[in-house]
TrEMBL record:
Required cofactor(s): Zn(2+)
Record protein name field: S-(hydroxymethyl)glutathione dehydrogenase
CDD domains referenced in this protein's UniProt entry, alphabetically: alcohol_DH_class_III
EC numbers for this chain: 1.1.1.284
Species lineage: Bacteria, Pseudomonadati, Pseudomonadota, Gammaproteobacteria, Pseudomonadales
Record field: catalytic activity: S-(hydroxymethyl)glutathione + NADP(+) = S-formylglutathione + NADPH + H(+); S-nitrosoglutathione + NADH + H(+) = S-(hydroxysulfenamide)glutathione + NAD(+); a secondary alcohol + NAD(+) = a ketone + NADH + H(+); a primary alcohol + NAD(+) = an aldehyde + NADH + H(+)
Organism annotation: Pseudohongiella spirulinae
Enzyme class: oxidoreductase
Length: 368
């Protein structure tokens, strides 16, 4: 079949909206019609050419929501008409990782996914007979796409897809880091570095679990209003204090129970660790630092009980946990609507990248 898609032909070039060929689903695969997709920093990172795994031409996008059109042989858990969210972190429920209780990093299709291919080592997308690569196993910048069954979360059919697409990446990354990875307890003092799309989701999850204090740290004071609406209780602008770590230790009466780095800057990662309370404070890295960058601190910080850890896709097991997060949104426990600041048709998708680079959007969503 033919499908409309925004194709990345080369690093640093705008996406081109064209018609490409899409082959139907093979064994264990599912054809999905996307209804909406968010545009995320990771798409921009790959498009910039800085992503060591990035290759072109490719159809980017990994934050979508849609409806199943057709299933390939052997697909049991999905049928045409089902509402789904694509998962860049799949959940096969069989591999060594899925069977281990401490990780969500299913590895069953990791190598082919990293190469931009389906699990059988080929691509379903092509143009004039030449293959176009998939991306993060999702390629949601195409109106229709093919995914492995294990990379689709089936969600309730009454969820608005123009909103819940954001659960495919940003919402789950922030909310899950608090609830599934850090397991923040009620009464905790929490610090969030970076009040963008990820940080605001960390804030609303910290409020949801009953944190007593939620301190936001950002160099842009324009972020304060929305952050307060989401649950931030205190704000620190690093440009207005001598020492961010000392300011946090003061405000928290000794250090934070949990800090979350939602910027992707190795200097703020160090601050986030050192702002943790001696003996028990935990710092969770969510932001993605540039390729090749390294973090540092004095080992004494860890010897004296602070914990440094990271979180990918919020520790969520996609097929199991994403439908639950959709429920939380539908029940009014999570606010997604205020985070989607811009929408546009596929033809205008390059505007979404401009808005992101200019810091004007929290999230842009493309509507098919
Ligand atoms: N100190 C404090 N705040 C900072 C700093 C800094 N040195 N540098 C940037 N910020 C703030 C920005 O002002 C902005 O509000 O961090 C926020 C980042 O927000 P977004 O650009 O919206 O990014 P977001 O989508 O939240 O993603 C954050 O997570 O997924 C990764 O790759 C992504 O690394 C990025 C991070
Ligand atoms: Zn697995």
């Amino acid at each position: 079949m033919k499908t409309r898609a925004a194709v990345a032909f080369a690093a640093g070039k705008p996406l081109e909206i064209i018609e490409v060929d899409l082959e139907g689903p093979r064994a264990g695969e599912v054809l999905v019609e996307l209804k909406a997709t968010g545009v995320c920093h990771t798409d921009a990172f790959t498009l910039s050419g800085d992503d060591p795994e990035g290759a072109f031409p490719a159809i980017l996008g990994h934050e979508g929501a849609g409806v199943v059109v057709e299933v390939g042989p052997g697909v049991k858990s999905l049928k045409p008409g089902d509402t789904v969210i694509p998962l860049y972190t799949p959940e096969c429920r069989e591999c060594e990782y899925c069977l281990h209780p401490k990780t969500n990093l299913c590895q069953s299709i990791r190598s082919t996914q990293g190469q931009g291919l389906m699990p059988d080592g080929t691509s379903r997308f092509s143009l004039d007979g030449k293959p176009i690569l998939h991306y993060m196993g999702c390629s949601t910048f195409s109106n229709y796409t093919v995914l492995p069954e294990i990379a689709l979360a089936k969600i309730r059919s009454d969820a608005p897809l123009d909103k819940v697409c954001y659960i495919g990446c940003g919402v789950t990354t922030g909310v899950g880091a608090v609830i599934f990875d850090a397991k923040v307890e009620p009464g905790s003092r929490v610090v969030v570095f970076g009040l963008g799309g990820i940080g605001l989701n960390v804030i609303q999850a910290a409020r949801l679990v009953g944190a007593r204090q939620i301190i936001g740290v950002d160099i842009n004071p324009a972020k304060v209003e929305l952050a307060r609406k989401f649950g931030m209780t205190d704000f620190i602008n690093p440009k207005e204090v001598d020492n961010v770590v000392e300011a946090i230790v003061d405000l928290t009466h000794g250090g934070a129970d949990y800090t979350f780095e939602c910027i992707g800057n190795v200097n703020t990662m160090r601050q986030a660790l050192e702002a943790c309370h001696k003996g028990w404070g935990e710092s969770i890295i969510i932001g993605v630092a540039g390729a090749g960058q390294e973090i540092s601190t004095r080992p004494f910080q860890l010897v004296t009980g602070r914990v440094w850890r990271g979180s990918a896709f919020g520790g969520a097991r996609g097929r199991t946990d994403v439908p639950t997060i959709v429920d939380w949104y539908m029940e009014g426990r999570l606010n997604i609507d205020d985070l989607i600041t811009h929408t546009m048709p596929l033809e205008k998708i390059n505007d979404a990248f401009d808005l992101m680079h200019e810091g004007k959007s929290i999230r842009s969503v493309v509507l098919y």
